[in-house]
Amino acid sequence: MKKKEYWQLFRIMFTLSTFTFGGGYVIVSLMKKEFVDHLHWIDDDEMLNLVAIAQSSPGAVAVNGSMLVGYKVGGIRGAIVSILGTILPPFIILSIISQFYAQFRANRYVGAFLLGMQPAIAAIIADVTITLGWNIIKKKEVLFIIVMVLAFIANYFGHVNVIFLIFVCAIIGAVYTVYSEKHQIKKELK
Predict the structure, then answer these.
(1) What residues contact 65, with CB distance under 8 A and at least 6 apart?
(2) d(CA 190, CA 179)
(3) What pTM was computed for the model?
(4) CA 25, 27, 28, 34 torsion: positive or negative?
(5) Of the candidates 153, 151, 178, the residue with the CA atom closest to the CA atom of residue 163
């Protein structure tokens, strides 16, 4: 990557992190729009894989996702630049808010603003879910579709812990990958 592209990566992550409310899944959807749809630095499948890794790694999804995207497009430097762009805005904002916490908490306009943002955040998260789910369905991999549906049912109706679901899905993905690679090697040897 050129110096200009590192700056662009930092600027994008800084902007997304500054103006994104609602958690890591919201910023991940906006990262997809920037890096997949707009800049074409990575493709849909890579983004889906990066999101899966970010979710299953310890820590904040936004930071994990930005680190993985940064690493994918710019190596170690890209990961560092991307992480800095992601963590600086919350650090600055929280440092300022902590100085005026009592006044912010009591301010009815701030409360109304945050309450009004909830529907938009829900819509963005729904968009990410539908987009990523649709990408899985388009692949027509029966196992992936079954796992997606069962994970949704287990979480939504069965109230199964998300960490357990991620762990089980990681095992299924690992077994599937090993099996697919062995099958591919056998196929190439014939």
Answers:
(1) 24, 27, 28, 31, 50, 51, 54
(2) 17
(3) 0.59
(4) positive
(5) 151
pLDDT band for position 139 (cuts 50, 70, 90)? confident
Q: Both tokens of residue 22?
A: 């609602």
Encoded tokens for 81: 């630049």
Does the structure show a pLDDT above 70 at 138? yes
Compute the Cα dihedral for 76, 40, 13, 119 and give only its sign: negative
Residues comprising the chain, all counted: 190
Spatial separation of the C-alpha atoms in residues 183 and 10, rounded to whole Å? 41
Structure tokens at 155: 């979480």
Whether residue 45 is predicted with pLDDT greater than 80 in this model: the reply is yes
Q: What is the 3-state secondary structure (H, E, C) of the chain?
A: CCHHHHHHHHHHHHHHHHHCCCCHHHHHHHHHHHHHHHCCCCCHHHHHHHHHHHHHCCCCHHHHHHHHHHHHHHHHHHHHHHHHHHHHHHHHHHHHHHHCHHHHHHCHHHHHHHHHHHHHHHHHHHHHHHHHHHHHHHHCCHHHHHHHHHHHHHHHCCCCCHHHHHHHHHHHHHHHHHHHHHHHHHHHHC
User: Burial level of 174, CB count in 10 A (0-12/13-18/19+)?
Assistant: exposed
Q: Could you tell me if residue 75 is left (phi over 0), alpha (psi between -120 and 50 degrees) or otherwise beta?
A: left
